[in-house]
Write a structure and sequence with these properties.
The chain is of the alpha/beta class and about 550 residues long. It has 18 helices and 19 strands. Helix 4 links the parallel strand 4 and strand 5. Helix 8 (about 215-230) crosses helix 12 (about 315-325).
Length: about 550
């Protein structure tokens, strides 16, 4: 947790008053915790400014559990979900405007604090995923993505550009890759990444080339041209002598290439295009013609110079013009207009305003988290202080369920229809609608037991489900063969099949494996499921009925 949370220690014998403030016996107590309860861990959220908003940790003294407490309850960091070879393509296809940062690890483990912090802070620019690299999938990762051995990192950027780094084992190496590949080749400039792009006066960047426009085919074309112009300066390719100055500037981070949405940042657009009345008026309109603008920062944080490119939209012409801008050329095309901070032609980014849906989601998360924290404290206060029995029972009914489900986190889930039923042990009845939904989702392995109404003993299957209920990649349920003729025929045709048979379906729904039946010992079933999760157990070819 180095760099993420600050740690301290209080000796209750030396500082009893401070201990009573930091770790009171219960929510409304003025006495410190009992000495028999020591050691006690207490945390404070980042925005907390009083002792009253403390959060007491009440779990086992394990490093992983304490780290989860800090990240989930105090910092509320986003988690990074695990993807598989089957779910990764769908992940890559989502959010095309963001960089994809995929971490391959040799074993299944909780998300590192560094990765969760990055996923939270860079959520507007990057989406993260974790892959448990299994030897059974090694050929797939090598052939498809060029990933040979873990630990490794794969970064996917716009235009199909891919970066693969192996032997990423240390925190410093991972942090360096995050900083280097946080942005696209041609990133969108916004307040959250203004420092990373360097497009502001008073920094290292001297010239910033900007594409200004609104979403559309013409805007995409101009962005593509400026992206090609930037790639032409890449030191890994042969750079013409005429572009050596710009290539050196790019390598030393003295020139930057970005784009901006004129619809969201209309004021910024109007400031940059102030010298052209028609372009100035068209800012943010659907008919706006995309423009390439250069900003030059050489006279401190309160002064800039900017001007529009008026030549042909081709990378060579743009680079030639930018060379004149960077070297302070005296030809008319490279002459820029000065602007002072506060003037109408001084561009400043508008603060990003969250939409109604995002605001409601944040409020919902805050309310749920606060309710969970208060509920936990009140329940423990009732237990430790001995209140009236009715009050204790009421609070117990209200808040005990939250102790098992934890703080709410977004998880990929199968969309369940209202027709499916669940018994008291959490085993779903896979009816016809639910089975159809499972077939289409193809995101989880379906673990099912074939039953004949209520006559079949499901005790072993329920024990199996309780052993793997935290495993997100498994979905448990029973199939009543008396109601589903197609499944009854399938159960009779597989080897050792019939009533009480337990099978697991691959996410592709084209492969399955019979792991036992209602008479198979629970440890043997757990062993079979473990082998499947580790990718070391073979599958049988078969069509989903």
């Amino acid at each position: 947790m180095d760099g993420i949370a600050k740690l301290g220690r209080i000796n209750i014998a030396l500082y009893p008053t401070l201990a009573a403030q930091v770790a009171p016996r219960h929510l409304f107590s003025t006495e410190p915790v009992h000495t028999r309860d020591l050691p006690v861990v207490v945390g404070y959220p980042r925005e907390c400014k009083s002792y009253f908003c403390s959060r007491r940790y009440r779990g086992l003294m394990k490093e992983s559990a304490l780290s989860a407490f800090v990240m989930d309850r105090l910092l509320r960091l986003e988690d990074v979900l695990v993807q598989t070879r089957d779910t990764l393509p769908a992940f890559i296809a989502t959010d095309p405007e963001k960089v994809k940062f995929i971490v391959f690890s040799p074993r299944s483990s909780p998300t590192s604090p560094l990765l969760r912090r990055a996923a939270t802070e860079y959520h507007k620019d990057v989406t993260f995923a974790r892959i448990h690299y299994k030897q059974s999938d090694a050929s797939h990762w090598t052939r498809k993505f060029g990933v040979h051995t873990p630990p490794a990192v794969m970064v996917l950027k716009e235009g199909g550009r891919k970066v693969v780094e192996h032997e990423v084992s240390g925190k410093d190496r991972l942090k360096a890759l995050l900083i280097e590949h946080r942005l696209h080749i041609l990133p969108q400039i916004r307040i959250s990444n203004l420092k990373a792009t360097g497009c502001k006066p008073g920094g290292l960047v001297q010239v910033c080339a900007v594409v200004v426009g609104v979403a559309g085919a013409a805007f995409d074309d101009v962005k593509s041209v400026l992206r090609k112009a930037k790639l032409a300066l890449d030191p890994s390719v042969a750079v013409p002598k005429s572009l050596s100055t710009l290539a050196s500037a790019l390598e030393s981070k003295e020139i930057s290439f970005v784009w901006i949405d004129a619809k969201d940042q209309k004021g910024y657009c109007q400031a940059l295009l102030s010298t052209d009345e028609a372009a100035h008026k068209s800012c943010g309109q659907a008919s706006m013609e995309p423009r390439v603008v250069a900003m030059r920062f050489r006279d401190g944080p309160d002064k800039i110079e900017h001007g529009m490119f008026s030549g042909a939209m081709h990378e060579d012409a743009i680079l030639s013009w930018l060379t004149g801008v960077f070297t302070d050329g005296q030809d008319s095309s490279s002459v820029l207009i000065p602007a002072d901070r506060g003037a109408a032609n001084f561009p400043e980014l508008k603060v990003e305003v969250h939409g109604v849906v995002e605001k409601l989601q944040r409020i919902k998360a805050e309310v749920a988290s606060t309710a969970y924290d208060w509920g936990e404290e009140l329940v423990y206060m009732c237990i430790e202080s001995g209140p009236l029995v009715p009050a204790f029972i009421l609070l117990l009914i209200l808040f005990i369920p939250t102790f098992f489900q934890g703080a709410s986190k977004p998880k990929p889930s199968v969309k369940r229809e209202s027709g499916s039923k669940m018994d008291g042990d959490g085993v779903i009845d896979f009816d016809e609608k639910t089975l159809a939904c499972l077939k289409d989702s193809r995101r989880e392995m379906a673990v099912m037991m074939f039953v004949q109404g209520s006559k079949t003993d499901q005790e072993v299957f329920k024990l199996l489900r309780s052993s793997f209920w935290r495993e997100q990649s498994l979905k448990f349920g029973v199939v009543d063969l008396t109601k589903l003729p197609a499944w009854s025929e399938f159960a009779d045709n597989i080897e050792g099949g019939g009533v009480s048979t337990i099978v697991i379906w691959h996410p592709s729904r084209a492969k399955y494996q019979r792991i036992g039946n209602g008479d198979t010992p629970h440890p043997a079933l757990c062993s079979q499921v473990g082998k499947i999760l580790d990718g070391v157990s073979p599958w049988e070819e078969g069509a989903w009925p």
